[in-house]
Amino acid sequence: MASNTAPPATETTARRTIAGMILAMALIESLSGVTQGYLNPILPALGPVFEIDDPTINGIFLISNVSFAVLTPIISRLGDSYGYRLVLRWSTAIVTAGVLMMALWPSLWTVTLGVVMLTCVVGFIPLMMGILRVSSPSHTRTGVSVMIGMLMIMVGAGGLLAGIVGVADPTLGFWVAVPFALLALVSSFVLPDAGVPTREGIALAPLLACSLGLIGFVVALSMAPEWGWLDIRTVGAGLAGLLLLGYWARRDFRAGSGRRFMDLRMLANPRIRTISLATFFFGFASISYFGTNGIFLHSSPEKSGYGFALSPLMIAIVLALASVLSLVSSLLTAKAMRKFGERATLVAAGLLLAGGFLVMAFAHTSFAGYCVGFALFNVSLGMYQAGTRALSVEGVPLEETSTAAGLNELGLSVGIAVGAAVVKLISSAFVESGHISQTGLFCIWGALAAAALIAAVASARYPRRAVEEVTA
Q: Do domains 22-202 and 266-472 have the same CATH topology?
């Protein structure tokens, strides 16, 4: 009788191949982490260098946020249609070109264009998840945990390295990303060509409606604190964005057998719908807080009544150390979902996030106490980022893996934008002597804790699955 068991040598080779593939993906994702982390200390310091004011710098951040939201569904959809590896290589090449351009020829225009090019990193995870799910479905969760861990640690490391290198000249900080970009570009050629592209054309009208709608919506949310919530520009951009997004949703829901931009019918799947909703509120409650965290740590107690008067370099060190917790929690997330279940793991992430804000609020006068709260924040950050991304593609056809992952990334991006708008609104409403008042800080902590609890409640609705469905 023939044995179905693979020879040990074959199993060892397969494990090495999978490990090498996940390592290459981690190296590519390190570029995403560095580029998202190193801009935070560089851009605010460019004012004297380029002779630009704070509104212009904030405008560059706004362009980055808009580009993230717009490119997320486009790159993901292209991956399903034309091949994950091909689109990943082009995305990595564009990011590498942007990194080199900003390092070699730093100016206001090259930095602005480069920031847009760097946002192509938003497609890295959806595209690599497509490759991973086709090549080795049983290792999808583990691979995602490793990628998210690398993302988390490199966001902190990127900011720290850029702060150190750019102490004398902030433009030198742009060189921090160069070696990571070149390494990621080489790694993109190591990955296998997995999956069969659908070659399905993309409907232009829904694509434009989605892109322009996201631009209008994100611009309205980002600029409302500066323009005013009832300003004609805010109302006009917001309404136009919502109308266009509504048109896009209607077209792609009812496209039938015709061409569509993204198949939104996948939201009828309870798992995908639940994860998308939870991801939105997780993004709302977490990433939008980083700006306030920096303000709090940098504030002087003598002037504002709170804070610890930390220097930018010390803040970067705190963020880098905290990112280690996100790395560890993300690496353990796949194991936690296997042992405790997907629902329990995501609910725990939401409760930890809410608890982190409550600890920061009640212990904000103590540096050690505040760090405990921020530690809970970062543990939750790694857990939900790895968990929601891995679960976002389970239950959809293989040929829609990248699109499903992109839909989850879109929910995260919009959640971050909405959360940032709420934080700005509260900050603008509670200002004393040019600083956010303590009342304003408590309102921010309370609002984000509430959003984290909503994320936990949404996660509690994730359907239980049969034991045989669970993958490694």
A: yes
Nearest residue to 91 via CA among 66, 108, 71: 71
Place of tokens 């049983």: 138
The burial of 298, by beta-carbon neighbours within 10 Å (0-12 exposed, 13-18 middle, 19 or more buried), is given as middle
266-472 has CATH 1.20.1540.10 classification? no
Per-domain residue ranges of the chain: 22-202, 266-472
pLDDT tens digits for 355-384? Answer: 999 999 999 999 999 999 999 999 999 999
What is the amino acid identity at position 64? S
**pLDDT at 349 > cutoff 90:** yes
Phi then psi for residue 166, to 5 deg, are: -95, 25
User: Topology of 22-202 in CATH?
Assistant: Growth Hormone; Chain: A; (1.20.1250)
Whole-Å CA distances, 253 to 245, 321, 405 = 12, 44, 18
With contact defined as beta carbons under 8 Å apart, do 386 and 29 qualify? no
CA–CA dist 75, 71 (Å, integer)? 6
Verdict on whether the full-model pTM lies above 0.85: no
Each residue of 188-226: pLDDT tens digit? 998 887 766 766 777 788 888 888 988 888 888 878 877
